[in-house]
């Protein structure tokens, strides 16, 4: 009994025993067509009973094994060594070939690193340290000057003066420190009045100044000349990035321009307005502003560095300008905010600035009319999370304010214009809710937060404010406009509500607000009642907004176990992704 298998290519492949190859019937073609069929007749080991009906042919499908076409002249058997050699001659292993090429390229590229590349400090120590030290000492001396006994002023010789003067002055800030005479040194520095000058005494250099050499800075004239110059204060001081300089400044008396305008037009920021005695260059204020943002350098440390650049001996120091510098830097930052917000181009001027107008809006938060598509309000319930904002609230009890000064002496330059709340309405609202308990005041439902429990300890005595509260974006961790407020005593509902309500003014058009707060399990219980009965009329949210309260992930374990507490979990809130709500902790 024989059964015929129809093998259709390509499907799956398997080996055919050599014992049955004699019964193979091959399609008579030198090249197999696609999906061609090869039939095999295979005998059964046990015969069928004579009474049984004739069996139908059983067909099996085999994958095209990608074999070359049969060579009828050679008659190679697929199980023979000759067939394997023929197949190997037509087969190229691209993987091995690619690996071989990569290995060759890597071998070519792999070169021994030089000492300058592998151990640069060792090379400098062995071969170049003495050279560097020698050139450093050479720069402290006269260098090439007077090398061949020529003591004349370099500029006088360059101008081919008949009687060149002796060069004894050099500049530490100029690129080429030529030794020049007094007149040539002053002429060189008419446009560079804040350079440091040294004088050669015959054995060493001593510190001098352009003021001693007779340089005068003329204001309000590009030609540096005025028919009616007015001298400045005799102890006029200018702070620059390379030190503290005493200079002679002449105001313009031929034109009716105020003194402070003349100074500002020359890049000098006056510390006072009536009769300025101290100025800082715009370059110094920009440098200090950027340095304080990147390195957290304090104004005091920066000024101490200026003092040491001026005189590092610690004696005969100039009169301290630390307080004027602090005022100038504070004003400079404020002016930068106004400039970037376009307040200088508004017809209403600075007085027309609105609350939060100087703050930088979070680019990842949804803002209707700015970064939302048309008809976003018609989104289905399953897509509404795309247009939701995640706001994270928290309080910081370490940012305390001492009872030192007051607002009449040191008023805020723009309270409520950027990130802090407006002081007057905030204080009024907090006083109206002075009898409110703390957010964590109910011990039976408390959150168990250590920061709140320590808010009223003895270490808070003598403080005007015990901390601050803020609202930030749950995505980008940017602080929201008009969200930072003071804490008078503890973390009360009134303080938290006002900062949150002030922030909601910038998201009036949104429909879903997700609020992350470590005490959300209590703060949100009577939220609707507080909004209805206590919130100021101008801060109440529209009725179309939906609020969803959640607890930051790190604070979940610290809360007391209460029933239905999982409703505040980020992990069970749809549409928040992997947001943890802990951005305020990272900001603090």
Automatic annotation (TrEMBL):
Pfam families attached to this UniProt entry: CxC2 (PF18803), KDZ (PF18758)
Keyword annotations of the record: Membrane, Transmembrane, Transmembrane helix
Residue stretches spanning the membrane: 506-525
CxC2-like cysteine cluster KDZ transposase-associated domain ranges (all copies): 210-314
Protein name as it appears in the record: CxC2-like cysteine cluster KDZ transposase-associated domain-containing protein
Species for this entry: Gymnopilus dilepis
């Amino acid at each position: 009994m024989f059964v015929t298998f129809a093998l259709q290519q390509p499907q799956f492949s398997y080996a055919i025993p050599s014992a049955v190859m004699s019964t193979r019937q091959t399609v008579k073609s030198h090249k197999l067509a696609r999906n061609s069929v090869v039939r095999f007749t295979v005998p059964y080991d046990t015969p069928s009973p004579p009474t049984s009906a004739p069996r139908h042919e059983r067909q099996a499908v085999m994958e095209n094994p990608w074999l070359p076409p049969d060579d009828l002249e050679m008659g190679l058997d697929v199980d023979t060594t000759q067939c394997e050699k023929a197949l190997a001659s037509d087969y190229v292993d691209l993987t091995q070939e690619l690996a071989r090429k990569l290995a060759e390229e890597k071998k070519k590229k792999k070169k021994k690193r030089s000492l300058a590349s592998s151990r640069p400090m060792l090379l400098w120590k062995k071969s170049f340290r003495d050279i560097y030290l020698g050139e450093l000492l050479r720069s402290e001396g006269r260098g090439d000057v007077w090398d061949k006994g020529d003591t004349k002023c370099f500029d006088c010789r360059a101008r081919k003066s008949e009687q060149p003067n002796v060069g004894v002055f050099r500049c530490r800030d100029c690129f080429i420190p030529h030794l020049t005479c007094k007149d040539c040194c002053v002429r060189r520095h008419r446009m560079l009045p804040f350079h440091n000058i040294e004088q050669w005494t015959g054995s060493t250099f001593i510190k001098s100044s352009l003021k001693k050499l007779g340089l005068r800075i003329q204001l309000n004239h590009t030609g540096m000349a005025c028919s009616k110059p007015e001298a400045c204060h005799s102890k006029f001081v200018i702070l620059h990035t390379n030190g503290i300089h005493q200079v002679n400044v002449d105001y313009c008396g031929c034109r009716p321009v105020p003194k402070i305008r003349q100074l500002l037009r020359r890049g000098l920021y006056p510390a006072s307005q009536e009769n300025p005695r101290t100025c800082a260059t715009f370059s110094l204020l920009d440098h200090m502003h950027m340095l304080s943002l990147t390195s957290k350098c304090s104004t005091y440390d920066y000024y101490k560095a200026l003092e040491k650049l001026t005189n590092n001996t610690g004696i005969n120091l100039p009169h301290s300008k630390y307080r004027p510098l602090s005022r100038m830097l504070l004003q400079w930052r404020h002016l930068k905010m106004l400039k970037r917000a376009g307040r200088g181009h508004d017809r209403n001027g600075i007085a027309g600035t609105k609350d939060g107008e100087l703050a930088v809006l979070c680019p990842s938060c949804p803002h209707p009319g700015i970064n939302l598509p048309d008809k976003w309000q018609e989104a289905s319930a399953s897509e509404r999370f795309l247009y939701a904002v995640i706001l994270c609230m928290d309080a910081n009890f370490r940012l305390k304010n001492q009872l030192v000064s007051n607002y009449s002496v040191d008023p805020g330059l723009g309270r409520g214009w950027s990130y802090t709340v407006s002081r007057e309405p905030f204080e009024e609202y907090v006083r109206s809710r002075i009898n409110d308990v703390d957010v964590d005041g109910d011990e039976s439902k408390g959150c168990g937060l250590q920061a709140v429990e320590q808010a009223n300890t003895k270490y808070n005595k003598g403080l005007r404010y015990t901390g601050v509260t803020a609202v930030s974006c749950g995505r980008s961790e940017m602080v929201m406009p008009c969200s930072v407020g003071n804490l008078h005593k503890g973390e009360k509902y009134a303080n938290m509500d006002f900062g949150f309500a002030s922030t909601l003014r910038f998201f009036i058009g949104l429909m879903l607000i997700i609020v992350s707060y470590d005490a959300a399990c209590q703060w949100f219980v009577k939220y609707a009642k507080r909004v209805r009965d206590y919130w100021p009329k101008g801060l109440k949210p529209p009725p179309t907004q939906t609020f969803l309260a959640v607890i930051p992930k790190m604070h979940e374990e610290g809360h007391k176990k209460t029933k239905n507490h999982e409703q505040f979990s980020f992990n069970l809130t749809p549409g928040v992704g992997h947001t943890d709500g802990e951005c305020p902790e990272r900001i603090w």
